[in-house]
Amino acid sequence: MGRVYLDERAVKFAAKKAREKVRRCVRGLDRDSVCEVVNELTVSFAGRPQWVARGLARYMLQTVKPLNLRVKAWLVEGVPMLGDRHASYLVWLDGDKYKCTCFTHAYGYVRQARICTHIAAVMFYRRQRLLGEEE
Ligand SMILES: [Zn+2]
Questions:
Q1: Residues lying with their CB under 5 A of ligand 1, a single-atom ion
Q2: How far is the C-alpha of 135 from the C-alpha of 36, rounded, in Å?
């Protein structure tokens, strides 16, 4: 299987699907496990639905891989079309806070970010895993 997240059409399709899904969640048309994460993230991203949709698109493109379940770390493959400059990002849980290597990658200093769309993708991934909706 090729890397679907490097395919321009696949990324555009996922991004469109993700935007539609987020809209349905925000408007209360859908009320499922994905929408529960969307609602959580809408608060974290201070009401920027396009960021939530980008996180969902990353999840839909299957860019999230569990790295080490014991220490709770995940590898998120970079998607150039979504603005990533690195091939992959490491997301991990530090206590109850998610951290991502993109916090430090950006310009060589630690960004003040508390969340990013890589973390959002991991949150969608973990929620679906919890529900047994993934293999
Ligand atoms: Zn990140």
A1: 89, 100, 102, 116, 118
A2: 21
